[in-house]
Description:
With 442 residues, this protein is mainly α. Among the domains are: 1-155, Tetratricopeptide repeat domain (Serine Threonine Protein Phosphatase 5, Tetratricopeptide repeat); 341-441, Alpha Horseshoe (Serine Threonine Protein Phosphatase 5, Tetratricopeptide repeat). The protein is built from 24 helices and no strands. The chain has helices at 8-27, 45-49, 52-68, 73-90, 94-109, 115-127, 131-144, 149-161, 165-178, 182-194, 198-211, 215-231, 235-248, 254-265, 269-282, 286-298, 302-321, 327-335, 340-353, 357-369, 373-382, 391-403, 407-420, 428-441. Helix 19 (340-353) runs antiparallel to helix 20 (357-369). The longest helix is centred in the first third of the chain and has 20 residues, at 8-27. The chain starts with 7 loop residues before the first helix and ends with a helix.
Amino acid sequence: MSRGEIARLAIVGTVLAVATVLVAAVVGIPGESPSQPPAAGGSVSAAAVAGPGNMTDAITKLQDRLRRVPGDAQSWASLGIAYVQQARVSGDPSYYNKAAGVFRRSLEEQPEANGPALTGQASLAAARHYFGRSLQLTRQAQRINAYDSVNLGVMVDALIELGRYPRAFRELQRMVDLKPGVPSYTRVSYGFELRGDLEGATYAMRRAVDIAYSPEDKAFALYQLGELAWNSGRLDEAARLYEQGQQTAPSYVPNLYGLAKTAAASGQTQTALERYRELIGRLPQPQYVIEYSDYLTSLGRGEEAAQQSDLIDAQEQILRAAGVNLDFELALYDASHGREKESLVQARQAWASRKGVFVEDAYAWALHVNGYDRQALRHAVHSQRLGTQSALLAFHRGMIQHSLGMTKAARASLLRALEVNPHFSPLFAPEAQRTLDQLRSR
């Protein structure tokens, strides 16, 4: 897909913004000062500055306060969102269950008009990939405060994941009107990218870079800008932006991921391996482990790749225990790693609850690897209804067309995939080129 996992980064922006509002207001996280713009609904700065170490300090301060004032509903909500953020920065999803408990406590202390707790619960549901529930909670919070741009951000993410694009874009415009800032401009950029307008996406993301107040804000926006370059096949530009983001805030891990994949794509094998190992050691998210495993497979290092597969299985168990829904992610992974039947089960479940373009593409691919090519093609074509410029989507469509004997259409789709980003996957980009060469030889 076009920026890693669907909406993951947009949701990160929401979670950071919520953390800014709920945590900084109670414990005064370093980095927020009166000279900066109000945190409510705008910048990710306070929570981002709070990084792993400072977020731990924030959690400790909130826990101390709640021991003294156990009836403080606002502090319970703040602690919940701090736990959600800590899960993200530490890679420890057990904080999700802790967050769920303290959000319940906040609502017990203040059952009525507790918008922060509802928005926090919505961000937790999004982090666990239950976007229908997330949308429901944001609507409840909106009835309490219709002008909360942070809540609007969570709502936009949920609507996009659910495939309700016209409503998502309308709510996004409201969010920008209420509070232009890094979270809103990031979402504007993603909205443009979904619709294939890469020039608009880049402009909006550069605005986010320009208005970022903290190093972590800027690193976040630079990573997003790097992803736009990467997904457009501009390898050198992407590497430069990831490096700039890494220098700006070394604690922000996604830029290290960007540097790993650009090194791999440019043939710097040893550098890529070192960066991937560091990345997995710091934050073993399934997306990162899967891509590292695929890279090892492309190098012929099957035994090491198998070790990463074991890590993916272990991470799956941990994430499921924390209440995370992995149907979409596992559908794509299983489809491409010899678990065809499992992939179709996962994809059907994902498609039943989420109608976004990338979920539909995953469903199409799962249908294809199980031999249902005509049905797969309908979904592959429909998944590009917004005009999204994605090498992976074009590759999937081309391989399905190839299986159906649609030679001319398959050539066009595979050529398009390689034009968009010739390095989109260490496994599938070479397969696209081989298949295209075979089709041309005919």
